[in-house]
């Protein structure tokens, strides 16, 4: 088994076991496992998650998202999310990643609380659905008051972290005593130092957040 600890957390988004091992080798501190990154991430294959947990000793979070597109889910889709959470909850996960909005682009509090209850005591990250809300400050305030929500993944409501840096810094300054922020949005190993200097957060996320170097896959 392999593991690492770090003050500044670099969370690598991966789709496969090979990517997970490579991310560790290149300096990742935590993994978010998902499928279909071309759709901004869906619920991953269960067998892949189990293998990563068994072989790579890094904290692992799992995306719970049944389809691409918007985040306004039907009752059937919410039921499927609850089933997926129940399955992954039995594994040694660090947490799950979820996000639900209503038709008015506000947080769907009823379904969010239902998913949180199903996931407890896992750590919960509210993902970049927050960036599609009409008033990110107002919606973050709601999340900051839900004790079961541990963190928010955000680009500050902008296309990338650099464009959203002022909003992200404001969110961190206002709400960081109640909730953690994971900065995301086109952050790579090439621009990480610049982004960190501009924002000064504790946690960052990206598919290419750590560099590439050869690593023997077993």
Q: Can you give a write-up of this model?
A:
Strand 4 (95-98), helix 4 and strand 5 (123-126) form a beta-alpha-beta unit. The protein has an eight-stranded parallel β-barrel, surrounded by six helices. It has one domain (9-206): TIM Barrel, CATH 3.20.20.380. Helices cover 33% and strands 17% of the residues. Helix 3 runs parallel beside helix 4 (109-119). The protein has 218 residues and is an alpha/beta fold. Residues 1-5 and 214-218 have low confidence and may be disordered.
Structural class label: alpha/beta
Q: Give me the Rg, rounded.
A: 16 Å
Number of domain modules? 1
Order of helices and strands: EHEHEHEHEHEHEHE
Number of strands: 8
What CATH architecture label applies?
Alpha-Beta Barrel
| CATH topology name | TIM Barrel
Question: What best-fitting shape do the alpha-carbon axes yield?
Answer: globular
Low-confidence stretches: 1-5, 214-218
Task: Give the percentage of residues in beta strands.
Answer: 15-25%
């Amino acid at each position: 088994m392999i593991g690492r600890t770090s003050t500044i957390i670099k969370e690598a988004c991966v789709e496969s076991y090979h990517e997970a091992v490579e991310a560790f080798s290149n300096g990742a501190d935590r993994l978010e496992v998902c499928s279909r990154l071309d759709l901004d991430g869906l619920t991953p294959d269960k067998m892949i998650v189990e293998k990563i947990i068994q072989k790579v000793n890094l904290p692992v979070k799992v995306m719970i998202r049944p389809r691409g597109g918007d985040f306004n889910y039907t009752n059937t889709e919410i039921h499927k999310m609850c089933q997926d959470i129940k399955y992954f909850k039995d594994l040694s996960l660090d947490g799950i990643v979820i996000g639900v909005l209503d038709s008015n682009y506000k947080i769907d509090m009823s379904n969010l609380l239902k998913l949180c209850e199903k996931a407890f005591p896992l750590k919960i990250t509210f993902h970049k659905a927050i960036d599609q809300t009409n008033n990110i400050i107002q919606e973050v305030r709601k999340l900051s008051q839900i004790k079961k929500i541990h963190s928010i993944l955000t680009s500050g409501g902008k296309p990338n972290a650099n464009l959203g840096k002022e909003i992200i810094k404001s969110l961190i300054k206002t709400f960081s005593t109640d909730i953690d922020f994971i900065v995301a949005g086109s952050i790579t190993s090439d621009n990480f130092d610049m982004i960190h200097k501009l924002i000064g957060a504790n946690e960052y996320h990206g598919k290419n957040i750590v560099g590439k170097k050869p690593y023997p896959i077993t």
